[in-house]
């Protein structure tokens, strides 16, 4: 777990307009409490079943905001809409339509990032650029969602230069679509992501240490 001074150094290094998401999946609620005490308000989880008990335990932390960053299965949409303020990982139109419909029923309006797959990666989901462009009229017609940006995860095989290229491509595509936010950059590439125009970096192990399984 990171100390207060190291945390401050990271925070102070972030340019204006770049927000820090602390990805707490695989970490205990006490670590979340600790980081909250440092002033961190945004936390990310990738599994609903893991997030719910943590959230319940931490509901005294009044200003905390929860972000869903994991693969979203359609049977989990209602739970995720109820429990999370931001969803970083929407990767299909049917999923987005479902989020829109359920958000209306639940009287919610989640902040949405569309995950885009800029390179082939059998391990990861995401829209292909072309498909996203073709679906764009449909996407922007949906209600009860607040579409704020794109999210990208580079394949692990890329080196630091190739990652930065991908991040630049994500920034450019978001600009083209008129979206402000780019959720990109993790513990091993957040500096490259910021140079390319990230507005949300998602840090897990750099803040919390090695992940445990919960
Ligand atoms: C786990 C995870 C992170 C954090 O990864 P680290 O390498 O530990 O910083 C960021 N984004 C997503 C989508 C994740 O699943």
Summarize the structure.
The chain has helices at residues 4-13, 29-37, 48-57, 77-83, 93-105, 129-140, 160-177, 190-196, 205-208, and strands at residues 19-23, 42-45, 65-68, 86-90, 111-115, 146-151, 181-183, 200-203.
Give keywords:
214 residues, alpha/beta, TIM Barrel, eight-stranded parallel sheet, 9 helices
Describe the structure.
This protein is α/β, with parallel strands linked by helices. The protein has one domain (4-208): Alanine racemase (TIM Barrel, Alpha-Beta Barrel), CATH 3.20.20. Helix content is 42%, strand content 17%. The protein has nine helices and eight strands. It has helices at residues 4-13, 29-37, 48-57, 77-83, 93-105, 129-140, 160-177, 190-196, 205-208, and strands at 19-23, 42-45, 65-68, 86-90, 111-115, 146-151, 181-183, 200-203. Strands 7-6-5-4-3-2-1-8 form an eight-stranded parallel sheet. The two termini are 16 Å apart. The structure holds pyridoxal-5'-phosphate (PLP). Pyridoxal-5'-phosphate (PLP) is lined by residues 23, 25, 46, 69, 153, 186-188, 202-206. Residues 23, 25, 46, 69, 153, 186-188, 202-206 line the site of pyridoxal-5'-phosphate (PLP).
- The third-level CATH topology is TIM Barrel
CATH superfamily: Alanine racemase
Give the overall silhouette: globular
Largest sheet: spatial strand order? 7-6-5-4-3-2-1-8
Largest sheet: 8 strands, parallel
Query: What is the CA–CA distance across the termini?
Result: 16 Å
Walk me through the topology.
Elements: H1 4-13, E1 19-23, H2 29-37, E2 42-45, H3 48-57, E3 65-68, H4 77-83, E4 86-90, H5 93-105, E5 111-115, H6 129-140, E6 146-151, H7 160-177, E7 181-183, H8 190-196, E8 200-203, H9 205-208
Parallel strand pairs: 1-2, 1-8, 2-3, 3-4, 4-5, 5-6, 6-7
Helix pairs in contact: 4-5, 7-8
Bound molecules: pyridoxal-5'-phosphate.
Pyridoxal-5'-phosphate binds next to strand 8 and helix 9.
